[in-house]
Amino acid sequence: VERLSFAADAAFRPDEELLDGVTVAPLTSPLRTGGPVQAAVFRLEPNGKIACHPASVPQILAVLEGSGLVSGEDGEPQPINAGEAVFWSAGEVHETVSEEGLTALILEGDGLELFRR
Amino acid sequence: VERLSFAADAAFRPDEELLDGVTVAPLTSPLRTGGPVQAAVFRLEPNGKIACHPASVPQILAVLEGSGLVSGEDGEPQPINAGEAVFWSAGEVHETVSEEGLTALILEGDGLELFRR
Prior knowledge:
2 copies of one chain form a homodimer. By secondary structure, chain A is mostly beta strands.
């Protein structure tokens, strides 16, 4: 058993232009080191934003707490709440913003597919 | 943008001997369909249990809510709380129990590695 904290106080604030008011607590090793996927907990402060950009690989964002707005290729913001996930295809332009603040798991990796009933 | 609910009311109760008082809400397609990893939200009711068994592939369990006890190869139960994750190697015998109840993300896949600082 190896252990890891992904609590708010274990998160870091990446110096990335796309991220505004966002901290990241990784769960897995990053894709660039050869892992099959990367998973991390992203926390958006109130009015935080993951600005519009294309997904480099297929991506799932699962909202664990809070609420926000997500958009995909059509640019249309859709409300999203805790307990809901979205999937973006590789190359899909997308954005996530939150007035209230939100905590989300983000999973990224080649071949990733959303569960279908 | 594709959407999926992983809320409690979207979860199912697998008919598996290892699971006692546990519901599962998948996020990704399962490993058996060729995905790189499978991710799902497991909810243990109070006194729920994922009984002792070897991990078929490397596994990360990240506690999102609640608390419980996890053990690995040595069988020693360790307390775990929301914001903490554990990693089990392929083949590692492990168990998860919760008196209070807990919600956890479980990620499983070949080549999965825990984030290291």
